[in-house]
Write a structure and sequence with these properties.
234 residues, SH3 type barrels, two-stranded antiparallel sheet, 4 helices, 21% helix, binds zinc ion
Length: 234
């Protein structure tokens, strides 16, 4: 049996003090929205941290691995898009309120890319996304809805397009502000650009290459002759 001693009382006091400090830290981190540090601190504290495979947001079940549209706040008109890597709940110890966070891998949209690469505006589709290696925690409540991210060829085969269907073919390096794997992308037309599914193309009957209507002088978006031969094949 342990006997009371002034030293052990001091140790207990120290432990209580430490626990109180931790509760205070978590509360402060929550107020400051320092999610990354909050996750780190809470994951080291018993009973405050839990991970999940799914979560219910706005009446929808969302799983780890799903892609989602995320509310970007008041400053931007466009929603953000990302893929969920982790779902975490943290108990805020002073109020016992649950803070639900998701770790997100971000995609960039056309509007972001053309700020540093304005020339790419012609071939980037409105529904195109660029995968980044940037991950971040967000509040689960800022998720708007599930969305789909297809490959470029899958996207081109769709009969109907809606605003929750995107495609991805390229990586975006956030530090260097450039594409990661541009060499792997096929270029088309006389203007030598990657295909933009938003634009109209015509195939040359001889060389089978694809050309923009505008680049081969087809006006009004229609071509009524039976055969089309490009400048190189005429
Ligand atoms: Zn062209
Ligand atoms: Zn041709």
């Amino acid at each position: 049996m342990k006997r009371w001693s002034p030293e052990s009382s001091a140790t207990i006091k120290k432990q209580i003090q430490k626990r109180l400090e931790k509760r205070q830290t978590i509360r402060e981190l929550y107020k400051q929205k320092s999610w990354k540090t909050l996750v780190k601190v809470a994951s080291q504290t018993k009973g405050l941290y839990e991970e999940y495979d799914t979560i219910k947001v706005q009446g929808q079940v969302i799983c780890v691995g799903d892609s989602v549209q995320i509310n970007s706040g008041d400053q931007h008109d466009e929603d953000y898009v990302g893929t969920i890597k982790q779902i975490i709940s943290i108990k805020e110890p002073t109020t016992a309120k649950l803070i639900c966070l998701c770790r997100i891998q971000w995609y960039m949209r056309k509007s972001e890319i053309i700020k540093s690469q304005p020339k790419c505006s012609e071939w980037i589709s409105e529904q195109e996304l660029f995968i980044t290696n940037h991950q971040e925690y967000i509040l689960a409540q800022s998720i708007i809805t599930n969305c789909k991210i297809l490959s470029c060829s899958e996207y081109q085969e769709l009969d109907e397009i809606d605003s929750t269907i995107y495609f991805n073919r390229l990586e975006w390096d956030l530090q260097k502000k450039q594409f990661g794997n541009m060499d792997a992308i096929q270029q088309y037309c006389l203007c030598f650009q990657p295909v933009n599914p938003d634009r109209q193309y015509i195939q040359c009957d001889s060389c089978k290459n694809w050309y923009h209507f505008e680049c081969v002088g087809i006006k009004n978006g229609t071509y009524d002759k039976n055969e089309f031969n490009c400048r190189n094949c005429q």
